[in-house]
Amino acid sequence: MDCDKSVNDDPACSIAEWFGLYLAGTAQNFVCNGYFMKPSGKQQMHINEQIRGMKPAAIRFSTRDIPAAERGDWLREMICRNYANIDITSRVDEDFYSETQIFPLAGLQLSSIHSSAISIEKRPGDPDHGGQDAYFAVVLLSGRYHLQQDGREASLQPGDMLIYDAMRPHRIHCPDHFSKLIFAIPRPALKHRFRPADACTAVRMAGHAGMGAVASGFLRSWAAEIERLTADELRNLSQQSIDLLAWSLAAIAPTGSPVSLGQAATLTRVKAAIEPHLSNPLLNSEMIAAMVSLSPRYINSLFAREELSLMRYVLLRRLELCHGDIQHGRHGGLRITEIAFRRGFNDLSHFSRAFRQRFGVSPRELKSRFGR
C-alpha cells in the first residue's frame, strides 16, 4: 500500500485505509469521511497484523478547498487534532494558504508544511485532549520561524532546527510564507535516549556547522526521498533520526548538563541494548554490562548524570511501558496483573507502589479513567 489520503476526500474507510492512517504508538486519531475516529478492536488487530513491511499512506490537509470564512476554524481543528491544542493568534484571511502532508511512520511522525504567515500559541492551562504527547523537532526549509518556550526564544533561518515540547505552553510566529519539516517524537522515545531534553527546548541548532549541520542535512535528505523509500528503510531511518537528535541535543545542552556527545552515544547504546530485555524479570546490572561490554560502575556513572541509577532507569522504563499499555489499551483485554508480568515485574505490590509514585494514580485508577 502506497497511496495518499486527503481530509477533503470522502470515501468509505476500508481496513487498508485504517492501516494507512495508523500512527504506530504516537497518536490514536484517524480521518474517515472528514471526521476523526478510532479503529474498532477487530480493525486494530487486523492493522497490527499488516503493519510490518507495509508503507503507510501520506495524509494531506489543504485550505485549497475550504471556504475562506471557515479556514481559521478548520486550520485550528486540524492543528489541535494532529499536533497540539493551540489558538491561532494571527488573522486568517481569504488569501491564507496552508498545506500539510503527514507521514505516519513506525517510531515517529513526519510532517511537511507549507503555509502563509501565521502566529499560534498554546497557553498555560489549555486542555491536552487531542494532539500528541511528543517533542517536535522542527527543520526550517524556507522563510523565518520564531519560537518561545520555557523562558527561552529561538529564531531560525533556513536549514536551522530546534525542538519543543508540544504539551507545554509555547508561542510560534512565522512572519511570512514558510516551509518546514516537523518530526514528532514520542516523549519516552527521546527521553530514554536523552533525559534532559527539557533543558534544550527553544534552543537554535545552526544548520551550517557542527552537529546541527549533520542532523539537519540528514533529516532533510531522507524527508525529500520519502516517497521512494521502503517501509523497512523508513523504519530504520526513523530510529537513526531519534538517535541523531539525541546526540545533537547533547551538543547544545547548557553547561553542567549531564552528558558529553561521546557519553550520549554510549548511553544511547546501553539503553538500546536494555530495551528488548525489559520483559525479563531477572534482568540485572551484570547482565546489562555484559551485553555492552562495559562495567556496571561505568554504566551507573553515565546514568548518574541523569540523576538515575542503571536499575532505576530499568524500573522507570517498565513503568512507562505499563502506563502506555493501560492508557492505550494495548494487548487487548489483559488484566493489570498480566500487563505487569509481561513488562518484567514479579512483585505486584512493588509495581503498584512504584506506579502510583511515578504517575500519581494507581494502575486500576488509570484503567478506569480511560474506560478500559
Quick description:
This protein is 39% helix and 20% strand. It contains 13 helices and 14 strands.
Task: Explain this structure.
With 372 residues, this protein is α+β, with helices and mostly antiparallel strands. It folds into two domains: 61-71 and 84-252, Jelly Rolls (Sandwich), CATH 2.60.120.10; 261-369, Homeodomain-like (Arc Repressor Mutant, subunit A). The protein has helices spanning 15-20, 41-50, 71-82, 187-191, 210-224, 231-252, 261-274, 285-292, 296-304, 310-328, 336-342, 348-359, 363-369, and strands at 4-6, 30-32, 35-37, 58-62, 87-88, 98-104, 109-115, 118-122, 134-142, 145-149, 152-156, 161-165, 170-174, 178-186. It has a seven-stranded mixed β-sheet. The chain has a five-stranded antiparallel β-sheet with strand order 5-8-13-10-11, with no helix packed on it. A two-stranded antiparallel ribbon has the order 2-3. The longest helix is centred in the middle third of the chain and has 22 residues, at 231-252. It starts with a strand and ends with a helix.
Strand order of the largest sheet: 1-4-6-7-14-9-12
CATH architecture label name of the largest domain: Sandwich
Q: CATH topology of the largest domain, anyone?
A: Jelly Rolls
Structural class: alpha+beta
Q: What is the percentage of strand-forming residues?
A: 15-25%
- What's the overall geometry? globular
The number of helical segments is: 13
CATH class of the largest domain: Mainly Beta
SSE order = EHEEHEHEEEEEEEEEEHHHHHHHHHH
Give the N-to-C terminal Cα separation.
32 Å
Number of strands: 14
Given as residue ranges, the uncertain stretches (5+ residues, pLDDT < 50) are 1-52
Domain count: the total is 2
Please bin the fraction of helical residues: 25-40%
The H-level CATH homologous superfamily of the largest domain, spelled out, is Jelly Rolls
Mean of pLDDT: 82
Biggest sheet statistics? 7 strands, mixed
Radius of gyration: 21 Å
